[in-house]
């Protein structure tokens, strides 16, 4: 185990005859000893480039990478004490699965007789104990991926890098292995950075999540921080399923507090809320964000009247969408809702669920209006 620091790291690719690509832009990421960190973002946001720079398969254009305070970004990959599970697996075709997994330990002093036991342990953890004597060409893509993952995990390296480690697995197996993988990483205090574009995986596995977009780090925080205090509109709408409801609106000072008005597409007021006890000097335009899971309907809800557009019970939760003054608002409840399209229902927006963002920069202004904006 070790700490890992990406210090103001930039990566620019210069493909011959084409414009340069700035894939990673001045990213600073401080990964603590034994911490599990997810790099989360959409395709092309620079996640893999970051992993490959840490592993040593790509040069760092600017900035530094340090393990336990020592610069490593000019060292050859083999000198970095970093284990990586590749998205493309990179298994050795002439070696059996057992040898592929154990191979990394041959160079590790003291592993000796322990190798077979450790191969079995990690293979059983990843449900590939029954294919240890097969060659990579004779196993499925999901098995190849788990072999690649096993080969990285078995080393218990100071820093482990996992590129989309379970993307080929079906959801049930993925959920089981995710829990086992987390236990293994914690038990061996393995500092780990993994790439994913699956937010469920990021939330389930990581101590902290680095949300990336267009090569820039948008936010680095615990799953809870990212959900409850997104730093900007991008993070707010990227994290959460269904995504956060976003409306144009305005906050203004009123007697005893602050009024929050959401506007419909034609600019007229769709709903209004009062946040008592807050102070504001002057009105300002905002973007209002409300998480679907925190919206209330039925008894006790009184902030607006919503005309039901769709209402589906998914077996364990209801997804309901309303028209409120021309805004489409999505809500999620854990109980079925007896309502049909066209029905009018009272809708409530708890103040703690309201996020405000600057419409120009997208930066967060306030989270939960029971605190001062
Ligand atoms: N060798 C390369 N030469 C030129 N451009 C590259 C190269 N590798 C990556 N890029 C570009 O850099 C950007 C970041 O790519 P990267 O693979 O790091 O993103 P990613 O977030 O891992 O994407 P994905 O989830 O699709 O794997 C993209 O625009 C990509 O096209």
Question: What report would you give on this structure?
Answer:
By secondary structure, this protein is an alpha+beta fold. It has two domains: 235 residues, 3-Layer(aba) Sandwich (Rossmann fold), CATH 3.40.50; 123 residues, no CATH class. Helix content is 21%, strand content 35%. Strand 11 and strand 12 form a beta hairpin. The longest helix has 17 residues. The radius of gyration is 25 Å and the shape is elongated. It binds adenosine-5'-triphosphate (ATP). Adenosine-5'-triphosphate binds next to strand 2 and helix 1.
Task: For the structure shown, list the relevant keywords.
373 residues; alpha+beta; Rossmann fold; 6-stranded antiparallel sheet; 8 helices; 21 strands; elongated; binds adenosine-5'-triphosphate
The total strand number stands at 21
Strand neighbour order, sheet with most strands: 6-7-8-3-9-10
Order of helices and strands: EEEHEEEHHHEHEHEEHHEEEEEEEEEEE
Into which percentage range does the β-strand content fall? 35-45%
Fill in the CATH topology of the largest domain: Rossmann fold
**What is the terminal-to-terminal distance?**
41 Å
Low-confidence stretches are none
Q: What summary fits the major beta sheet? A: 6 strands, mixed
CATH superfamily of the largest domain: P-loop containing nucleotide triphosphate hydrolases
User: Averaging pLDDT over every residue, what do you get?
Assistant: 92
Judged by helices, strands and strand pairing, the structural class is alpha+beta
Question: What is the CATH class of the largest domain?
Answer: Alpha Beta
Spatial extent as radius of gyration: 25 Å
What's the architecture of the largest domain, going by CATH?
A: 3-Layer(aba) Sandwich
Q: Helicity level, as a percent range?
A: 10-25%
Number of self-contained structural domains: 2
**Total count of helical runs of at least 4 residues:** 8
InterPro entries: AAA+_ATPase, ABC_transporter-like_ATP-bd, ABC_transpr_FbpC, ABC_transpr_MalK/UgpC-like, Mo/tungstate-bd_C_term_dom, NA-bd_OB-fold, P-loop_NTPase, Transp-assoc_OB_typ2
Protein name: ABC transporter ATP-binding protein
Keywords: ATP-binding, Cell membrane, Membrane, Nucleotide-binding, Translocase, Transport
Domain ABC transporter: 4-239
